[in-house]
Fold this protein.
Amino acid sequence: MIKDEYMVSGEGRKPRLVAPPKACDTHSHIYGPADQYPRFPGRKPNFGASIEAYETMLARLGLERCVIVQPSLYSTDNRCTLDAIRHFGPSRARGVAVTKKDITPRELQELHNAGIRGLRFYLIVDDFIMGDAAEMARRIAPLGWHLQVQDRGNWLPDAMPILEKLPVDIVIDHVGRTPPENGINDPGFQALLRFMETGRCWVKISAPYLASLDGPPHFADVGEKVRALAAVRPDRLVYAVNWPHPNHTPGNRPEEADCLDALLDWVPDASVRNAILADNAAVLYDF
């Protein structure tokens, strides 16, 4: 462990929501020992989050499947993510990678064989910029991968004209992270709703604490956005935990059960909720 690094626990309360069989967490990260998986210089978080702790959290929430997303901490070094997918096995796990811009078809095929099904554009760091999207989408299209995109603030109005033209499905993280003060009338969120209508855009119901003024345990303002999304294309929504909540500090980490239980209010129809938790992810991640 590096200096001042601590380990995140998977403990917490059990949710009221009973997840259906094959329920899937579609977005979490594993941070292994620093001497085994070197950190990219200058990036955070400064903690570890082990596979064992993650398994504890999944069992507590009743989630059988998972998607390990390459964290920015490792940039294009996907070894920790690939090792985590291997640990769970092909019946339980898939992954989303970050690659070099000049990755070859052979290297992409090797990642596909290892369980990767998407390419991450985390635009808050500089591994990729939106200008790279067309070329990278062209590279991953033969494999049937999607492009997973995240930014924050007023980013969607400029991004949508680019994303809509790409030859792959698009996955938008964390309910879009649009400015919370604008609610569902935010221009970027309205553009997201229109893109969802095409069936080529998926949205992760995850990390409500990143764009909520109301806060836990209900995150009512985020719930309003989820209801609007579900009214358009409930078959293009998936659920994610975003464990271990890398933007939060010790003593201020969200309770995963609160975020899961919020679905009982946001998506009251049990059949739709179960599809979001299980069936839709099975389609998107090729389980």
Notes: The mean pLDDT is 95. DSSP finds nine helices and ten strands in the chain. The domain at 6-284 is CATH 3.20.20.140 (TIM Barrel).
